[in-house]
Design brief:
mainly beta; 9-stranded mixed beta sheet; 7% helix; flat
Length: 1112
């Protein structure tokens, strides 16, 4: 964008300003004029209009793109450089707030805030493209007023900030002087070059300003007709002294907070304004008609509805949640309005200017320097607040990060260490470290520790004379923080080094995210480190970390007085000799007795020889010599102790062997003993009757037991004339000969467990450990501790094997019987006369010998009625009955429950009446005319009733829930379901009118093309699976063929493409129809009983998909 005359008016801007440049904030100067014709000639004005028209020819037609939410703009050339950084948001969750601060506010803000009635600093007139500097200085002025450090008349110098950001500035302590250099620009070029608010804040963070406008003014004069004209010659010729860069400010920078802008985090911005007085903000200032504005003065408004790179910086000083979105409309603008009400009150850097209306020809508005920008403006970014303090709080700032940019550290580490040398006041002086300034990412836990006289060697902090108590905290916003350390009382004499360590709470794969000061490339080796711990540090001047800048860790000190330094420190020992791994303690005495801090620290000159901890405990590590250095806390006094470590030379490993066997013991020699062989050692056994050892270290086992074998060696040099030795334990073992158990066969019901009681013989067997395995995990499992768990009906073998190498085994046969799964009561909820008895009849399934012994009958109130044990029914031996005896009038519940497996039960109610009521005859199974009352899933069929043991006159249909069965004599065939379901469990018995029918067959096409079926439980009573029974069940994944199945029909499982597991438990299978398993998964496995593998492989041949495997 071409430069304007210094007093020309803005032609195409909206509100108060116009910005140009995609990355650098560079502005046009706008001046107040009373009459255009009085201040510029018509030719001049026409030329400027032509310039503006030329500049706006490339403006994109927003109306044509209005519907595109992804539409975006780039700022015009020569604009503001946006940092491109993402700062995140403050998460106040740890303090009890919510993640979404706007939805659930952690602090209440008024609907409107306007600080102007209480007093704000004046609106400035920026010179050329320097909005970034004016924005930051305005925020600093607001902060000083907010904190009572200045009043509203405060006027800080933007020129001083711009000047020293482009000139070499000298650190008073001479630490980062070489980190800055002149840019070579003239002063006017500096104003017009643009910049970043974040870079300006980083520069100010080094206590480089600000100063008052009167100390570094921008030379200008007021025009006769009003407005300002800047004196370019005077500006270009101005030279600012170094004293104005550091030391002339009345305040010291304390911190800054940055955050991203998002409509869901408005309260972050409000909090920063409320806390710090105002915030710098960047946005896109449009040149053409693609913005909206309305009114003049206090009513000026601005809204940009599309994404665009920021090109102008201003200060937000207030807000109004109810500022109408209609205020952003303008007659003839025909533009998109904000989504809702709400706007920020913005202080611009153009004072008392006239602005041309972009829609009404030859119309100008006089601006107050303030305008409103919608909460919903799509270009708002880079919110920044600054914080200042009285300059007397801290006197000195130690820093290596002398550049003007902020760069987070990436994933280089979570531990940061800067080491400084105290140098502020000269010989004999003492400083107190009262604070630390650092730069942290948002919501980052951290801790700060200060080390006196730190020593870093080979990437490890190996020693220090003192260590402060760690101070922990957590940041809220990203930005600069000053951490107060006054309570830690850390003193550093002149010339002493001190290290400030900040550790962040991120793991090694994450981002430690501490700022590295860009441009700080001139630190010397040994000054700054970054790593993942104090044992993993990389010098920031070393490759691959060259030229990354120093961590932003700055020491803040004051001059200390009344401090007594040490004059000497003396160790209690000055020479010690240790064998490897031995240790001794050193103590020290600091003089004079009145030394302010009499603590001290240790370090070793060679940690491979001896190490020392903070308490003076010296531990020998390896053969050699080194010194242990002790240093007083203040670094003024040192002493040392010489340590000699002689080698233990070698070590032996424990051995185990059996009687009659031999083994060679092989010493492991240290490097100092290289070349010494085992036969040079002296060998000895603690009990030659158990095991002997010869002169070369060969051990021969004789009988079971344990001995200690010792090897010794003596040498005048290597062992310091002392005999050294090493020992090992040799165990001679007795092998196992047999395993005994209290049971060789075990019978369990499904779900039951049994602990194997095994004994390994003989009793003196050295290793009695056993391993357990089961031949069929579908029948039973066994744990590492020998606990058997019954799974399904069948027989399996549990094998125990010794682990001592003898390989002795023992088998236990486990028989698993099916657990009771269902109990049916024929007559429940009865009334019995006092003093009489009543017989109840019931069935339990599956039916098998002894099931009545596996039932427990109880009464909830035995004083009312009691129930006897289950006995075989007098009607049907497969059924059961029990006698209820009524004692007194009342009510009780009778429960029939299984005592094994899943412990199923059924309960019915008994009412006992007085003696005048007749007890009804018990209803027996053959007399039940309708559905059993205790099972409402058994529905009447309307067919003739038959008694147990009688042949049915005709077959009947029984419906159980969603399942259908056809009877055939005393048996039933499952024929299908009324509705396709994913999981089906077929009962082993069905009941109708008091009669029980055994389910023995899955009918042809019973599940034909049931595309929902995923699993089916086929009962143990089934003997036949019909043709196409499961044809096309595409989601069926596994199936178990129970133990009594004899026939599988043709195409029974044809096309079950997801069927991968078929378990055949039946040993009675005689027929498998053609293509029974064709079309099942190619990865399927058909598991068959071990003893039937050969015959079933032949029986199944050609009847399953290629690739399917048949295994035992």
């Amino acid at each position: 964008m071409k430069k304007r005359n210094l007093f020309i008016t803005m032609i195409l801007a909206l509100s108060i300003i116009w910005q140009s440049m995609p990355m650098v904030y560079s502005d046009v100067n706008i001046v107040e004029i009373e009459d255009i014709s009085d201040t510029v000639s018509n030719n001049e004005y026409a030329a400027d209009v032509a310039e503006d028209e030329e500049d706006t020819e490339e403006v994109i037609d927003i109306d044509a793109e209005e519907e595109s939410s992804d539409f975006s703009f780039n700022a015009p050339p020569n604009g503001t450089i946006s940092s491109g950084r993402s700062y995140g948001y403050a998460d106040h969750n740890a303090a009890g707030g919510e993640n979404n601060i706007d939805a659930d506010t952690y602090v209440s803000f008024s609907a409107k805030y306007d600080p102007r009635p209480k007093g704000v600093s004046g609106v400035r007139n920026q010179y050329l493209g320097s909005c970034w500097a004016y924005s930051v200085i305005a925020a600093a002025e607001s902060n000083l007023i907010k904190k009572g450090l200045a009043d509203s008349s405060v006027d800080l110098s933007e020129f001083q900030l711009i000047y020293f950001m482009n000139h070499k500035n000298i650190d008073p302590l001479g630490i980062y002087t070489n980190d800055t250099s002149d840019t070579g620009r003239t002063n006017v070029q500096m104003f017009d070059n643009g910049g970043q608010p974040t870079a300006a804040i980083s520069f100010l963070s080094k206590w480089t300003g600000p100063v008052l406008e009167s100390q570094a003014p921008v030379y200008s004069k007021t025009l006769p007709g009003g407005g300002i004209e800047y004196d370019e010659n005077a500006i270009n010729n101005a030279v600012l002294e170094q004293e104005l860069c550091a030391g002339s400010s009345n305040w010291h920078f304390k911190g800054a907070r940055f955050c991203d802008y998002d409509i869901n985090h408005l309260n972050n911005v409000k909090e920063l304004i409320s806390t710090y007085g105002g915030v710098s903000m960047s946005y896109y200032q449009s040149e053409g008609s693609e913005y909206t504005c309305k009114g003049t003065g206090e009513d000026a408004s601005y809204y940009f509805a599309y994404k665009a790179a920021a090109n102008h910086a201003v200060e937000i000083v207030g807000w109004d949640d109810n500022y109408s979105k209609d205020n952003f409309n303008h007659a003839g603008s025909n533009v998109k309005l904000p989504e809702a009400d709400g706007a920020w009150l913005v202080k611009n850097s153009w004072a008392d200017t006239y602005i041309m209306d972009p829609y009404v020809a030859n119309t100008y508005y006089k601006s107050s320097g303030y305008f409103w920008i919608s909460y919903y403006d799509k270009t708002i970014s880079e919110i920044a607040a600054v914080d200042y303090d009285n300059k007397d709080t801290y006197a000195n700032l130690y820093a290596y990060d002398g550049g003007n940019m902020i760069n987070l550290s990436g994933n280089r580490g979570t531990t940061f260490l800067n080491i400084y040398e105290a140098k502020a006041y000269g010989t004999g002086s003492v400083e107190k470290i009262d604070g630390v300034m650092t730069y942290l990412a948002a919501n980052m836990p951290f801790s700060v520790t200060v080390y006196s006289n730190p020593v870093v060697e080979s990437g490890k902090l190996v020693g220090y004379s003192g260590k402060s108590e760690a101070l922990s905290g957590c940041s809220d916003y990203e930005g600069f923080y000053t951490i107060d350390l006054k309570s830690r009382n850390i003193y550093v004499p002149d010339g002493m080094t001190y290290g400030i360590c900040i550790e962040t709470a991120y793991d090694k794969s994450s981002d430690g995210r501490l700022s590295l000061g860009g441009g700080g490339y001139y630190q010397e080796p040994g000054q700054t480190y970054t790593g993942y711990s104090l044992n993993d540090l990389a010098d920031n001047t070393d490759s691959p970390y060259d030229k990354i800048g120093a961590p932003c860790i700055r020491g803040l000190t004051n001059k200390a007085s009344g401090i007594t330094l040490s004059t000497s420190i003396t160790l209690d020992k000055h020479s010690i000799t240790l064998a490897e791994v031995d240790s001794k303690k050193l103590t020290a005495n600091v003089l004079p007795a009145g030394t302010t801090n009499r603590t001290y620290g240790f370090r070793s000159t060679d940690n491979s020889v001896a190490e020392v901890d903070a308490n003076g405990n010296v531990t020998a590590v390896g053969y050699g010599e080194c010194d242990i250095i002790v240093t007083s806390y203040d670094g003024m006094s040192t002493d040392k102790c010489h340590v000699t470590v002689y080698s233990t030379g070698f070590s032996l490993q424990d051995k185990s062997l059996l009687a009659g066997n031999s083994v060679e013991l092989t010493p492991v020699f240290t490097k100092e003993f290289a070349g010494i062989s085992a036969d040079k050692l002296t060998w000895k056994s603690s009990d030659v009757n158990v095991a002997s050892v010869d002169a070369s270290g060969k051990v021969t086992a004789k009988t079971a037991g344990c001995v200690t074998v010792t090897a010794s060696y003596k040498d005048s040099k290597l062992t310091n004339g002392k005999q050294i030795s090493a020992s090992c334990k040799v165990t001679v073992g007795k092998l196992a000969e047999s395993i005994t158990t209290n049971k060789d066969t075990v019978t369990l019901y499904e779900g039951e467990t049994y602990q194997i009681n095994a004994v390994v013989l003989p009793e003196n067997t050295s290793d009695k450990r056993l391993s357990y395995s089961c031949s069929n995990s579908y029948v039973a499992t066994v744990s590492e501790q020998g606990v058997i768990t019954a799974v399904e009906e069948g027989t399996a073998t549990i094998t125990m094997t010794t682990l001592d190498g003898s390989k002795v085994t023992k088998d236990i046969t486990v028989t698993v019987l099916p657990a009771i799964r269902d109990i049916q009561v024929y007559n429940g909820n009865v009334t019995v006369k006092q003093g009489e008895t009543y017989t109840t009849y019931f069935d339990a399934s599956p039916s098998m010998d002894g099931w009545k012994d596996r039932l427990k009958l109880t009464s909830s109130d035995p004083s009312v009625a009691q129930v006897g044990n289950a006995v075989p029914s007098d009607i049907n031996p497969d059924s059961g009955m029990a006698v209820i005896t009524a004692y007194k009038a009342g009510e009780t519940d009778i429960t029939i429950a299984s005592i094994d497996g899943d412990k199923v039960s059924v309960t019915f109610h008994v009412t006992v009446t007085g003696s005048d009521m007749q007890t009804p005859d018990p209803v027996k199974p053959s007399q039940i005319p309708d559905v059993p009352k205790t099972d409402d899933t058994v529905k009447p069929s309307g067919k003739p009733v038959t008694k147990p043991g009688e042949d049915a006159e005709e077959n009947i249909t029984i419906t159980v829930g969603n399942m259908y069965f056809e009877t055939d004599g005393n048996e039933a065939v499952y024929t299908g379901s009324g509705k396709k379901t994913s999981d089906v469990t077929i009962p082993d018995y069905v009941y109708q009118s008091g009669r029980r029918y055994k389910v023995t067959k899955i009918d042809d096409k019973a599940f034909y093309k049931n595309t929902k079926l995923k699993s089916v439980d086929i009962p143990q009573t089934v003997t036949e699976i019909g043709s196409k029974a499961f044809y096309g069940c595409k989601k069926l994944t596994k199936v178990t063929i129970p133990g009594k199945v004899r026939v599988i029909g043709s195409k029974a499982f044809y096309g079950c493409k997801k069927l991968k597991k078929v378990t055949v438990k039946s040993t009675k299978l005689t027929k498998v129809g053609s293509k029974a398993f064709i079309g099942i998964s190619k990865k399927a496995v058909i598991k068959v009983p071990k003893k039937k593998l050969r015959s079933y492989t032949k029986l199944l041949k050609g009847k399953y998909t290629k690739g399917v495997k048949v295994k035992k």
